[in-house]
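Per reviewer request, we include the raw input and output of the structure prediction for the construct analysed in the revised manuscript.
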Amino acid sequence: MPTRSKGKRPPTGVAGAPTPPAKVRTLSLLKMKRAGERITCVTAYGWPAALALEEAGIDVCLVGDSVGMVELGYDSTLPVTLDEMIHHARAVRRGLKRALMVVDLPFMSYQLGPGQALASAGRVLKESGAEAVKLEGGAEVAATVRALRSAGVAVMGHIGLTPQSVHALGGFRVQGRGKAEARKLLSDARALQAAGAFAVVLEGLPEAVSRSISRALDIPTIGIGAGAACDGQVQVWHDLLGCLPQAPPRHSRAFAGTYRIQVEALKEYQRAVRQGRFPTPRETPLP
């Protein structure tokens, strides 16, 4: 008769099943920063992507306004509407359980001031089930961040290369290269932290600047094109998985080449149909 091990048993939940991983919350990210544990964040724009992101154990799911450029065919994030963000966010929500879900407030859905931001964020949280919103800007949006936090909305900041300001910045250019710019970015990051942001995205910055900001803040920094010194990294789904025919941006890496896989699968489907190899009797449902 087998003997029962005297060692520690793994934690169990309902009916002896293994306890699921703890839900990621805003405070979880703060604990990860304090423990020196890197944070992973990936964008998602629909239910299948959310399922895969969840199974992989990614910490934060960002429903980004980058959906405009990688899913909707726009040449920038500027045309994306609040209704479009909510539509995609609702689909993502259905696939998430553990990951913290953050949704971008799109261009001109918060720039008119705290009142507009509250209305927009309220719609996002109530209609999509998101747990936080993200907005772009530094000290100039601190009052808006403070108003959102006072209303109980969790806010992630975003400074550096801010895509919603692409025309004002003169294109997608690295920011913070000069000493004055670097000091301004540090001041912006501190203003967002003081206003109540739980984290801040640093995009398109020299690594030395990102390191300085990350060390100065108590809240986590999430980098994209800002080097390895940040407390975490965020990548766009389509860049990460090679979903588009063009090469990913320099700050990214395609960990797979799914665009070519999809094209080859479609070609094989076409050949199988034309040659009468699909469907087979097994693949044809009975009447």
